[in-house]
Amino acid sequence: MEYRTLGRTGVRVSTYALGTMMFGADGNPDENECADIVHAALDAGINLIDTADTYSHGQSE
Predict the structure, then answer these.
(1) Is 55 a catalytic residue?
(2) Radius of gyration of the CA atoms of the chain, in A
């Protein structure tokens, strides 16, 4: 996995991100499956996860 520095923070983030907009009632309501997706991303070296309190009304977080 390739990583880059996030601005001037010194934090190294993966060049790929996992988007979670479709986690929860508005997409995939299976919590276990969504957790498996997160774990697969982490195992692949992804450390940047895009989530927001508005995705599936906060369920994706």
Answers:
(1) yes
(2) 13
Of 55, 56, 58, 60, catalytic: 55
pLDDT digits (tens, 9 = 90+) for 3-57: 999 999 999 999 999 999 999 998 999 999 999 999 999 999 999 999 998 888 8
Residue 57 carries which DSSP code?
G
Task: Look at phi and psi of residue 57 and say left if phi exceeds 0, alpha if psi is from -120 to 50, else beta.
Answer: left
Cβ atoms of 31 and 3 closer than 8 Å: no
Full-model pTM: 0.86
